Amino acid sequence: MSVVGNNPRGMADHVVSLTKRLRQEIPSCLATGVVDMATGMLLTYETTDTHPAEVLDLLAGATLDLFQGRTVTMIEDVFKERRGISSAEHYFQEILVNSTNLTHLFIRNTMNEDVVVVVVCPKSVNIGMLFAAARRVVKELRAF
């Protein structure tokens, strides 16, 4: 199910509201974005800095690879098989990536698995506060 459904204007407003709330409520937040996994598109983003269009275009593809790449899907299938789970639900819900200077948090929306929120903070961010704030905002605004 794509984010862009029966009410594109309402969905667009909701996605923009989500990115703004994340930027406001997450300590030291540098950037946020929302990726639609069904279309492979970055729906919206908000950042404190300018980034080349190529980097923003690649973010959606990288997010898709992180959550639904071929190898990741194989790992999910093995975990499900070993645990006797027959659900089509994706196993990986949150991924934290640390780069040289930044921390990137990717959270799948529990109401619509095709929606992934991306949050970028300095590497010095308190990880517990990052997770707590991001989960709270995503939970409050999850009804896509």
Task: Explain what this protein looks like in three dimensions.
- This protein is of the alpha+beta class and 144 residues long.
- The chain has a single domain, classed as Dynein light chain 2a, cytoplasmic (Beta-Lactamase, 2-Layer Sandwich).
- Helix content is 43%, strand content 23%.
- The chain contains 4 helices and 5 strands.
- Strands 2-1-5-4-3 form a 5-stranded antiparallel sheet, sandwiched between helices.
- A hairpin with a 6-residue loop joins strand 4 and strand 5.
- Helix 1 packs antiparallel against helix 4 (127-140) and helix 2 (53-68) packs parallel to helix 3.
- The model is unreliable at 1-6 (pLDDT under 50).
- This is Roadblock/LAMTOR2 domain-containing protein.
- It comes from Kibdelosporangium philippinense.
Brief overview:
This protein is of the alpha+beta class and 144 residues long. The chain is 43% helix and 23% strand.
